[in-house]
Model the fold of this input.
Amino acid sequence: MIPTKHRRPKPPSPIRTSRAEASVRPVAAVRRLLGTGATLAAIVAATWLPTACLNDDPAVVSTVSANRAESTASTASTPAADPQPTTEPTTEPEPAAEQRSSDTLVAHVIDNEVVAYAGPASSRVISSFTNPNRHGTELVFQVLAEPGSGLVESGWLPVLLPMRPNGTVGWIRAEEVDLTRNPYRIEVDVDDFTLTVFRNDELYFRTVVGIGEGDTPTPYGSFYLTDLLRPSDPTGIYGPYAYGLSGFSESLASFNGGAGVIGIHGTNQPSALGTRVSHGCIRVSNTSISEMATFLPLGTPVTIGDEPGRHTGNDHHRGAAG
Done:
């Protein structure tokens, strides 16, 4: 990784979105299309992409902030300005008062560092994390608590940590983060070679994937999106975009000088999709990753397994773009 010094950026101002335009767009065009529930920060200094899935030298990339989910200060329903699949109505009914929210909470770190503890009010430190993170991306965590729950109001938040071993949970102070609500989640079925995005528990997007092979399988478990990166060569081995995950390879302690982070990214070998081909990362078509980059926020949960699905959703979806 190229060492860089990061100055904490000012929070970007919100800008409107239109989901009607679903074609592949460059970053400059995405800036004009993101909504009140989303932000796009400036591209920052180039750094290395130390994922565990590629067998070539790491590519130089830029970090790009993904869509930002709705603030918890907003209403419980998903705002109309959120990205909408073209096969669904542009408005949604209000959820019933007794209905359990399908949203997950995303914690956006406010200061330059946050400390994760072993429990609420515990003195045992699990780890500390800098903001921005190692790629210059805003530091976020997936919160393991229901929106509106008493746990969220307690002053301490249980979060999934982007560290080894996979699945490590820590507790952070609620006063050190801003919370947003995220209606999306991702499920990857490694037997069917599919990646499915659900929005409010309804099937929203699906595509074919390539996964880890042989001694470098894609790890099973629960993770979340930590980074959105743009490789310098959009036709290269990473494709035009790469999402970093909170998980790490369980067979590679390091890779190409990096920590062995698992990612979801494009590919310059689309014919290998639907097979076991990578060093652990999840490969999708360049069309699919470009589409995903327009609506998936950092903090989105990612479940990887042979039968990860807990919900079947309905038949509305964005289509198989892979």
About this structure: Residues 1-48, 54-59, 73-99, 311-322 have pLDDT under 50 and may be disordered. The CA atoms of residues 230 and 241 lie 5 Å apart.
